[in-house]
Amino acid sequence: MEVHFPSNKLKQLIQNDRKRQHKFGPENARAILVRLDNLRLAENLAAMYNLPGGFHELRGDRAGSFAMNLKSGYRLILEPAHDPVPRKPDGGIDLEAVTAVFVVAVEDYHD
Question: What strands lie across the sheet with 2-4, from one edge to the other?
Fold first, then answer.
């Protein structure tokens, strides 16, 4: 799967080892890289449900976004990078057709 970032600032934060460790701590810095590798190796977003790590769809005002758990309450937030987003007949997102994502945030959901 293709992994994109919506901004250069976020891309640099995630891809720079020193910045990533400083911002999120060493455990989360490693977990972020593992999750990005998982995404890049996956054929589509549906494959993420088969891996450990608490992949789940978000609800409410975050509907249409997905989260992958990291460490200590942090999670990686993803959105399909398709325009339009592939849909199933019932209106839900067709995860098997999502082959590219944006990493939109790394956040502590306790905040």
Answer: 2-4, 100-108, 74-80, 66-69, 56-57
